[in-house]
Structure formats: C-alpha cells, structure tokens
Design a protein that fits this description.
The structure holds four protein chains of four kinds. By secondary structure, chain B is mainly alpha-helical. In chain B, 80% of the residues lie in helices and 0% in strands. The model of chain B has no long low-confidence stretch (mean pLDDT 87). Chain C is mostly helical. Classes of the chains: A alpha/beta, B mainly alpha, C mainly alpha, D alpha/beta.
C-alpha cells in the first residue's frame, strides 16, 4: 500500500491582479512505504513547492494528500499533528536552514522538545548523542555552532533533526546540491544506509539526474508544474519516452571523453507557468511538436509496467 | 509612468487627511482658544466665549476637523489667531529664507559629503578613509545649533569675517549653510561610503575590470551609479527634513524661516498657523519623496519596469 | 547506535561543558568588538559618563549646581574650585554638567528604550505576519514620518506641558515610526531565512519561532540602531531645551544650559563650549560604540 | 599589438610557472595557490578541476592580476602570455591586456552584468576600451549587432537591460562581452554551474563553436568532471592550491595511473552510464588553507598514505607530460 498519495494536487501563487503562477498543477504521486521517489526537473518546475505542499509548509490550492490513507488536508488538527511527526524534511542549503545562534545540541533538540518526545533532560541529551552518532557527527561537536562547521557536517545536523522524531517519511529537498562531490557522496550514502536501517520512505527532490538515478526506486520528471513522465528508475533511464526526459538525459555531460550531442539540444529556456495556455507545456521547446500538442491538455498515460508518459507521441 | 505618478499624487490626499488629523488633535490638547488670543487676557469671559462661538471653536473636534479639511481642499488654511493674517500668506512670507538655507546646505553637504564618501570607499582603510569617517561621525554627534554657535564665536566674533545673524545678504547665509550641512553632509558621506563599498564588491565590477576598463570609469560608470539609490533616498529625506527641521539653527542665526514660524506659533498657541505650516511641510516632504521615487526610475531600469507595470 | 549506558557516561562530561556553552556567540562578538580600537574608546567614554551620572551626588552636591550666587558670576574656567568656570548666576558649570548628565541621559535612553519596545512589538508583528496588518502599519507610519520630527515633538510638548517626562513621552511618540521601520526591516530579513521554515517543519509554534529564532537573529542590528538612536535623542532633547520648551531652569540640563548661556556667548564663550562638548562627546561615544557593534555583529561588512 | 607580433607556433599562449598566490587575512596567511605550473597552446582548452577552495578561481584571478588589491599577493612565480611575463607589466599595460588578449567569463550570469546599463552598452564598452583602430561609433555598434547574433541573441534586444533576460541569455551576453575583442585566451570560471542542465548544454555547445571559429585558447574552470570531459584537451586537477595531476584529457579520463584524489573524485560521483550500488566518498574534509598539512597535502585523507607522505613534498611522477604529484607512483616505478 502506498504511504503517500496525492490526487490532483495544485498550488497557484497569486502574483498580480488575476494572474496566477501555476507552480504545481495537478500532480498525482504515489510513494510506496520504504521506497524512494525521485522528483527531478529544472529550476521553476515546481519540485520544491511539491515538497513543501506534501509537508504542509504551504497550503495547497486544491487536491488531496493521503498519508497512510488519511487525507491530511482535511483531517482534524490533532490528527494532523500526529501525522506531522511521521513526516520530516531535509533542506537544500545547510547554510541557511540552521539557526546560527543555536548550538548543535539545541538544533537537534528542537524537534524533540517541540514534540515533547523526551521525558526529561537526561533522556533528551542521550537521544541527541544517539542521533549524532547515527548521522556520523563526532560527540565533540555537541556545543559547536553551525558557522564553525563545514557544509557536510551542517547537512548531517539537518539530517539528525529530520530523523529525531523517528519519522516514516522524509522529503529530501536537494539535500546534496550545495555540497562538493566528495562530501555529496558521504551524505548520499548516509541517507541510503538510514533508509535500510529505519525503513524510511523518501521523496527525493533534485535537479541532478545522476543523483536521482542512484538513490531512487521510482522517478517523476516535472516540467512547469506538471509531471511529464513517471517510471521505475531503471525503466526511465533505459527507455525515456517523453521528449523532455530524452533531452534532459542527453544534456548531462558524463565524465567520459567525447563531445556533447548537438542533435538533442533543446531550444529556448524554461518560462514561468503564469496562467499557461492549454496543451503540452513543453510544446514550445519540443523538437517533435505536433499541432494537437497545443490543442488540449495531455494526460499522463500508462504505457505499460508502471511507466507513465504525458505525450501525444506515446499514447496508448 | 505618468499613471504611477498620478496614483502617487492621489495617495497624497488620504495622507494629508491623516496628517491634519494628527496635528489638529495634538494642538486640540493645548490649553488655548482663539478668543483669548485675539482679544487678549484682559477681555471679558463673555466676549471671549462669544468670539469662540462665532469662530466655531466650541463645536466638537470632529466637526472642526471636517470644516478645516473642506477649507484646506479649497486652498484656505485659515487665519492666524494672533494677527488674523491668512496662514498661507505667513508661510509664503517665511518660505524663501527656509528654502535658501536648505538648498545651500544641501549643495554644500552633497558636494563635500559625496566626494569624500566616494574617495573613502575607493581607498578603504587609507588615512583619508579613517580621517573622513571619523570627522563625519564627530560632526554628526554634535548638535547643529551648538556647531552654529561655535562658528559664530570663531568667524563672526573673533575673526569678524562674517555677520553672525539675520538675513540681510547672501553673506549672512554662509555660516548657517555650513552649520546645517554638517549633519547632512556627515550622513551623506557615511551613506555614500557604505553604498559604494557594497557596489564595489559586486560581480559586475569584476566584469568591468576584466574588460580592461580604467579604474576611474569602473568607479564612476559602474560602481557609483549603482550606489546612488540609497544616496538619493537620504538626499530626499534630508531635504524634506531641512525644510522644517532647522528650527534650532534658525533660532541661533535669527533666520525668519518656516521652522521659526511654527515654533513661535506653538509658543503663542496659534493653532491655525501650526497646523497649516506643518501640513505644508508634510506635503513638501511627500512630494520630495515622490521625486526621489521618480529619480529611482531614472537610475534603475528594474524599478522603471515595475512602475510601468503597475 | 549509542546505548543508554554510553550516553550516561557522556552526560557528565557534556554537562560540565554546557556551562561554558551559551557564551559562544556573544563571546565571539565581544572578541571582535574588543579588537576595534575606536569602538573601545567610545565604550570607555560612555562608561565614564555613566559613572559620572550614577555618582553625581558623590562628586559634587546638587546644591552647588542650582544655588545662585551672583557674586561668583562668570569666573573663567581653570580657576580654583571652578574648573569649567561659572555661569551668569554664579553656578559652577562643571557641577551643572555633572548633574545635567542625569536628565540628558535619562531622556535619551528612556525615549529609546520605551520607543523600541513599542516599535519592536508593532514592527515585528508587521514584519513577521505581513499582509494586511503589515501594510496598514507601514502606511500609517510613513504618513507620520512626513511630519517634520522636531515640529511634531514640539507640538506634543506644547500640548502636554514642558517637563522632563513630557519631553520624553513626546520624543518617544514621535520616534515610534522610526523604530517600527528598523525592527520591521530586521525581522523581515530573518523571516525569509530557511531556518524559520525548518523550525516550522519540526512543529515549533509561531510564538516560539519569534522568541527563539526571529528575535535572537534580528536583535543585533536593532541594538546597533538603538545605541546610535540614544545619541540622536540626547541631541534632540538638548535642542528642545535649547528652544526653552523642555526642562525649565534652574534644573541642570545640557540643552537648557546652552539656552541660558546663548545670550552671553559673545563675552563668555566657555559657558556654551562645555555643555555642548558634553552633548557631543556623549553622542560620539554612543555612535562609536554602535559602529563598532555593527562591525562586530557582521564581519562581512569589513573587507 | 602584442598578439600579432609574436610567432604563434612556438610560444604557448599561456605558460604559468611555479605560481604562488596568498591572501593576507586577519587570521593569518591563506596560501590559496602553491607552486602551480601549466601551459596552454593555441586553440587548446585546459580544464581546471577541483572542489571549493582548491584555488581554481585564485589561479584565474592571478593570471588577470585581479586579486583583491589589499589582501591578495603573488609572492612567487611567472605567468608568460605569448612569452611576455604578465607579472612584470605595469598596471596600465595589464589593463590593456585584460579584455583584448585575455578575458574572463564568470560563474554567475545573474550578477556579472551591470543591472543599470543596457546589454548593448555593456558589449560596446568592451569594444570602446580596446578600440585601437579608432573605429567610428557606428562601426562599433554594428560589431555589437554582429556579436549578439554570434551568441544567438537578436540584435534588436540590445537596448534591453539584464533583468529582461533569462539566466542562459545573460550568460550568452557575458560570453559576447568576453569575446568582443577576439582574445587569444578565455578564462571561463564555472560558466555553467548556475544554469540548468539543458541550458548548460546550449551554452557549452555555443562556447565550443565560438572557440573553434575564433581559435581561442581556453581555461575551463569547473568542479564537474562531465563538463571537462566534453570540452577540454588537457586537464589539471587541483587540490589545496596544488595541481596534483595534470595531463591530456585522455590521460585523465582513460589513463591507467592516477593521483588518489583523482580516483576519489571519479568514485564519488554517481554515474548515469553505469550502476553503482554504493558511492565511495573521499574520507575527511578539505584542509583549512591557512593551516595546510605538512608533506603531501592530501595525505590525511588518502587511503594509501605512507610514512614518507607525511613530511616532505611528494616526489612528482612524470610520463610524457602526464604529471602526478604522488609518492605512490614513484614507488611503483621503483619497485
């Protein structure tokens, strides 16, 4: 059974008189317990908004979010608080997501204290030390402040905060984008180990396809607030069907000698989805656009074995 | 753009209503009435009462407020309780001195303050920078009216180079100008320096240097223009402030400006003059801030684009 | 994973260290502040002035400052017993400056502290919640700020009557918009930070977010502005007294001293020099401290 | 003019020898670049790879002599541009070289352009500064149109301001500015890091094309091995201010022997073209540049660290120009 499911989730930001930015526009996701859904896309595709909607940090414009079968947008406050403990988030920037005035102890304690997770100070301290050990932070840092630490260690604090309440589900919002490659690998390994040990479910948001391939079971590709393709990780990389996914894949330079391929180069750039017209949002940049692409919205279709695509070229 | 300006001018109306309300309300609390002021202390209570009734002073505050506003909208700020002269006329008579003082001080402060500010920023940590900022801070710390007194003692009384008070000729204005420009020039220097230091660190300065641009043009063409926004803000606010805020300096140099008019009126409890002059000054201030906002648009195309969109 | 016993052992070690812990940030700021020579000079001057104010009665009796003795008129500075000379009523200028410090500092500090509390409350509400409340507060304050400050203060004093407390109230009311603006800007710069969202994500309620995250991070620039504002307020208070609308003679106050002395400055310039120097030095020391504090709080601004 | 008088075949465009650069900070001396040497031939692209704080950008700024005046210093080394030592030039001579002979593209196109000047003016500025042939304003203007067309932006947009362009477009304008005077050497400091992948691909292809057309040499500074693999002829891997490995792209990407740090970098990145179950991160952290370890700078993090690595400079390995700064290879050779 799926742990998290969204139905037609929408988030519109009002940006002027009767002008709306369709940041997330009717996205359906489904994440099985213990698995990782990778959400990829370029800046402005709504992937971070997606994470915040799921976490309840932003109110959704419409749609439903089911967590363990319960619609968390419509349940009681007490129920909501209960669910919230099971859902946590790791932020992108370890520099700005930690309060510079708080020590490591205070930072990791915050979720414990706020949710009265520990009976007394002693238990709290023991739990903080335990958490630090899990995320690989040496005990001597307990009284340090974020500015005294490097990016990798700071991100470990962020991870410790996220797992403090023993959550089941974690939104990872670009957790390694701000880190150097050697440190990035350390954090990715940590996240994967934790998933194995604690049976965590991840929603992993990133712009980096190599990272998402490495960590995800299933991948959703977003473009201008919509999901254009969704498939098992292996399947997506072996058989990308949507022209955008194909372009994205061919645009990533691999560390092997050779030249970048000119033929799959995308034209133009991403625009803002402000009151978009009907039709495929990718149509304007698509190399294989057909007239029907801009006639009506293209729905996500199952093309077999859990591979979904929103493209007229791969209709069922 | 024109629409933006029009909208801003329209917004002046509610703003002035509030200003009139605040000032009238405060003045309403002062123990004063027109009857006593016009007829003098020795007049009979009845006569005073009768005059107050006739002038509508005994009506509730709100009614008097509405009446005042409706007259003010027609350009009538009432008459002075003290000498019966129209308030507008009083203000017009006093305004030139204030304006001369303010404009002169602005020119001096702007030239010296900005030049030193730019130099300090370009040569950060140099002797000039340290001395300049220290001097600016000292100037800003001493009360203007006291600096004025010191200048009088030195230049008027000891050296006898300049007249010490009055407004007979432009020469009379030299000491007041320098006195007034002290704190303004100091804040100008500090703001220019801070703003320049910030813009000098921007990436586009590096781009300009990498192009091979000369240092002089890097500073003037790239750094300075980008550093102007906060400087213009301070300029506008200070100018507006100087129109009404030089009361103490006007007192020291016996300059018959609008500030002095208000202070005299406050002393005499001459309510219409206080309200009228304050409202006029507030209007000037707001208009100046509008000019600042329009200047923004000239300096920064991003702001221009925002104005046009609205 | 750590066992309970292991944590127990660590507990003692860390409890010891915890006593040292809290200092972290303020210690760091103090370390940087200490390195700034001009700021330290400012602090020493200010501490000196504070001490003078506190021990004024021990230094010279209040009577010396207010008792008129015409036979002692205009004794020049440097004379025995009258280091700064005497004024037109034969009162010792030094004594008047020493006792005047109370009124001047009291007005300056009082107006700022009360103003910051009120302005801080409204400013943080505006900055943190935004939306309608924010634009209402900002609009209103912008309007009030159009009225020339000095004239607003003077008319409030005229309405309330000239006295120390009333001048203080007038300055406070007139400056609240200014403080709101400062606090709002500081709060806004913090409210947009990711750690506010991070705190929300781990279930911290709004009032605790303000208390634990917003205030500690926004307080720095506010303290800097407040320090400098005290200096400005002292100058303003002196100006009001100078115009004869503040503290009334014979109460010693620096601005009032200047008001009394201005008629004699032609022949006895020292009667205006010393009170003015006191005002300037106090304001300067506060400005130096504020400046140093700003650099210490935000080392990025340097270099 | 400098670039026309010299024989272009024998002298490399850039020859950096034993370059050192330091920053004098309050906390002490930060040794950002230590004993760096490399050469770039005409038309060659060299990749300069390393993580944050490796000294890549400092190297670039040293070449242009744009280190911060107050803190930055070059205590040792030589930088020959077409045989002439740039460190011996007067500031004014150096200024003429900047933009005309050597130019630079910066990492963040959002901030690299002056927000209050039109993009046309900013390109024109480059041309005006180095207008040695005294061309008329009109000729220069038409050159601006030409440059904008070259980077794929309609010249009709030259009176627009930077905020009216998207990130990729801005970077194209930055490129136009850099190439305005057809420099012989272009230093690109992470030119695509701030861009999305699809835009990165566009910009890289454009740079490749222009470089080919103008015959420009290039230093491509990047942390991304993928970008370097697709664009560079030779590669220098930097770590803690030193070039730990230097060779042709073939040496680095397909060669058999490597510096342990290079190996570590390759193993730490997840790959699209192969399945890795577990990444192998490099242990530990980048050293503090104001307190570098003794001996080999990498030894505290190195899995193959030997006693001799802890003190003394590692013995360089060199085979046909493939240089590796590591004792390990020397030993293997000896054994």
């Amino acid at each position: 059974m799926s742990m998290l499911r969204t139905v037609n989730l929408k988030k519109y930001f009002k940006i002027g008189k009767n002008r709306f930015l369709h940041a997330v526009d009717g996205v359906n996701v489904e994440i099985d317990a213990g698995s990782t859904l990778g959400v990829v896309g370029e800046s402005g595709c709504g992937k971070s908004t997606m994470g915040r909607l799921v976490m309840g940090l932003l109110p959704a414009t419409s749609g439903e979010i089911f967590y363990d079968g319960v619609d968390i947008l419509r349940c009681t406050k007490a129920e909501l608080a209960e669910r919230r403990r099971k859902m946590q988030i790791i932020f992108q920037d370890p520099y700005s997501s930690l309060n510079p005035r708080m020590s490591v102890f205070e930072l990791i304690s915050e979720p414990l204290v706020m949710n009265r997770a520990c009976a007394n100070k002693k238990e709290q301290l023991a739990r903080v030390i335990e958490l630090m050990e899990i995320v690989g932070l040496a005990g001597r840092f307990i009284n340090s402040y974020p500015h005294e630490m490097d990016g990798g260690r700071r991100q470990r604090i962020g991870v410790a905060r996220a797992i403090a309440l023993r959550p089941e589900f974690i939104v990872c919002d670009e957790p390694v984008s701000a880190l150097d490659v050697s440190i990035q690998a350390q954090i990715l390994n940590l996240l994967m180990d934790m998933q194995d040990e604690m049976k965590l479910t991840y929603m992993f948001i990133t712009h980096d396809l190599s990272v998402v391939k490495h960590i995800s079971d299933e991948i959703m590709v977003m473009y201008l607030g919509q999901c254009v393709e969704r498939a098992r990780s292996k399947e997506l990389f072996k058989n990308p069907l949507h022209p955008y996914t194909q372009a994205l894949l061919s645009a990533i330079p691999q560390p092997v000698l050779g030249k970048l391929r000119h033929d799959k180069l995308l034209r133009g750039e991403v625009t803002d989805p402000i009151d978009p017209e009907p039709g495929c949002r990718f149509a304007k940049r698509c190399n294989v656009m057909k007239p029907e692409c801009i006639e009506h919205d293209i729905a996500l279709q199952d093309v077999g074995s859990g591979h979904f695509v929103a493209c007229v070229l791969c209709g069922g | 753009m024109a629409r933006y300006v029009f909208k801003r001018v329209l917004m002046l109306v509610p703003m002035l209503l509030i200003v009139i309300f605040i000032v009238s309300f405060i003045m309403n609390l002062t123990p004063s009435d027109p009857g006593t002021l016009i007829l003098g202390e020795r007049a009979t209570k009845d006569a005073i009462q009768e005059l107050n009734d006739r002038l509508g002073y005994n009506d509730p505050f709100f009614i008097r407020y509405v009446r005042y506003v409706s007259r003010a909208l027609r350009g009538d700020l009432g008459n002075s309780w003290k000498n019966g002269a129209p308030v507008i006329q009083e203000i017009v008579r006093r305004f030139p001195a204030t304006l001369t003082l303010a404009v002169g001080a602005i020119v001096i402060g702007l030239t010296i303050g900005m030049t030193l500010g730019i130099l300090s920023a370009v040569k950060q940590y140099s002797a000039l920078d340290v001395a300049g900022t220290a001097f600016a801070m000292a100037l800003a710390s001493f009360p203007g009216f006291w600096i004025g007194m010191m200048l009088i003692i030195l230049f008027a009384l000891k050296l006898r180079w300049l007249p010490s008070f009055g407004v007979g000729s432009m020469k009379h204005y030299i000491l007041p100008w320098f006195t007034t420009s002290c704190s303004f020039g100091a804040s100008m220097l500090r703001m220019t320096r801070t703003s320049m230091l910030e813009s000098i660190r921007m990436d586009y300065i590096r781009t300009a240097r990498a192009k091979g641009q000369t240092e002089k043009l890097v500073i003037l063409r790239h750094a300075l223009r980008n550093a102007l926004l906060p400087v213009v803000t301070i300029l506008g606010m200070s100018f507006g402030g100087l129109l009404g805020g030089t009361v103490t300096i006007e007192t020291v140099f016996s300059i018959p400006g609008v500030g002095s008019l208000v202070i005299e009126a406050i002393r005499m409890k001459d309510v219409p003059v206080v309200v009228g002059a304050t409202v006029t000054l507030a209007t000037c201030f707001t208009l100046l801030m509008l000019v600042v906002d329009i200047l923004y648009a000239f300096i920064d195309p991003r702001i221009r684009a925002r104005y046009i969109r609205h | 994973m750590g066992t309970a016993t292991m944590a127990d052992i660590d507990l003692k070690k860390i409890d010891l260290k915890k006593k040292l812990k809290k200092k972290g940030h303020s210690q760091e700021i103090w370390r940087r502040f200490k390195k700034n020579r001009t700021a330290m000079v400012g602090m020493f001057i200010f501490v000196f002035i504070l001490l003078v104010m506190i021990f004024a009665d021990a230094i010279v009796s209040y009577d010396t400052a207010v008792t008129q003795k015409i036979s002692n008129r205009f004794i020049p500075p440097g004379s025995a017993g009258h280091l700064f000379g005497t004024d037109n009523f034969g009162r010792d200028i030094l004594a008047r400056i020493v006792h005047g410090s109370r009124n001047s500092l009291l007005m300056g500090i009082g107006a700022v502290v009360i103003g910051i509390v009120i302005g801080g409350l409204l400013g943080s509400i505006a900055g943190f919640y935004g939306g309608g409340i924010d634009s209402f507060i900002v609009r209103t304050m912008d309007t009030v700020m159009c009225i020339p400050l000095m004239l607003l203060v003077l008319s409030i004093v005229a309405a309330l009557g000239a006295s120390l407390v009333n001048v203080l109230i007038a300055m406070m009311i007139a400056n609240v918009p200014h403080y709101i603006r400062i606090v709002r800007a500081a709060v806004l710069s913090v409210a947009g930070q990711d750690y506010i969202e991070a705190a929300r994500a781990c279930g911290t309620p709004n009032f605790l977010i303000i208390l634990k995250h917003v205030i500690p991070n926004a307080i720095g620039p506010i303290i800097v502005q407040a320090t400098m504002a005290v200096g400005t307020m002292i100058i303003h208070a002196a100006g009001i007294s100078f115009l004869g609308m503040g503290i009334q003679p014979p109460t010693p106050e620096w601005g009032a001293m200047l008001n009394e002395a201005k008629n004699y400055m032609v022949d006895y310039p020292y009667t205006v020099i010393f009170p003015g120097l006191s005002i300037g030095l106090t304001a300067l020391s506060l400005n130096l401290m504020g400046d140093g504090l700003r650099d210490a709080l935000d080392p990025k601004l340097r270099d | 003019m400098l670039k026309k008088t010299l024989d272009k075949n024998t002298v490399p465009v850039l020859d950096v020898r034993n370059l050192e650069a330091v920053y004098q900070m309050d906390e002490g001396v930060v040794r950002a670049v230590n004993d760096v040497s490399f050469t770039i031939a005409e038309g060659e692209t060299m990749g300069l790879v390393g993580e944050t704080g490796a000294g890549k950008t400092t190297t670039a700024f040293s070449i242009l002599r744009l280190l911060p005046e107050r803190t930055g210093r070059i205590p040792r080394g030589e930088i020959f541009y077409k045989g002439e030592n740039l460190l011996k030039k007067t500031p004014d001579e150096m200024r003429i070289i900047r933009g005309s002979c050597i130019s630079m593209i910066f990492q963040d196109p959002m901030t690299a352009l002056n927000p209050i000047l039109t993009v046309g003016d900013q390109i024109l500025e480059s041309l005006e500064i180095h207008n040695i042939e005294n061309k008329t304003k009109k000729e220069l203007e038409s050159r601006v149109d030409e440059l904008m067309t070259l980077v794929g932006i309609s010249p009709a947009r030259k009176n627009e301001y930077p905020h009216q362009f998207s990130g990729g477009m801005k970077q194209r304008i930055v490129i136009a500015i850099a190439l305005a005077c057809e420099p012989l050497l272009l230093i690109a400091d992470e030119p695509t890091t701030a861009l999305d992948v699809t835009i990165q691909a566009q910009v890289l292809v454009l740079m490749e094309e222009l470089k080919g057309r103008l015959g420009t040499s290039m230093i491509m500074i990047s942390h991304d091995l993928g970008v370097v693999a697709k664009t560079c002829d030779s590669v220098a891997i930097m770590y803690a201010g030193e070039i730990v490995e230097y060779g042709t792209a073939k040496d680095i990407f397909e060669g058999k022997v490597h510096h342990p740090y290079t190996l570590g970098l390759f193993q730490a990145i997840p790959r699209l073209d192969e399945d890795t179950l577990r990444l192998r991160p490099i242990n530990g952290l980048m050293p503090d540049p104001s307190d570098l370890p003794s001996g080999c700078k990498f030894h505290p993090r190195c899995v193959d660290c030997m006693d001799e690595c802890r003190d003394g400079k590692p013995y360089p390995y060199n085979q046909n120009g493939h240089r590796i700064l590591c004792n390990l290879l020397q030993r293997e050779k000896r054994v």
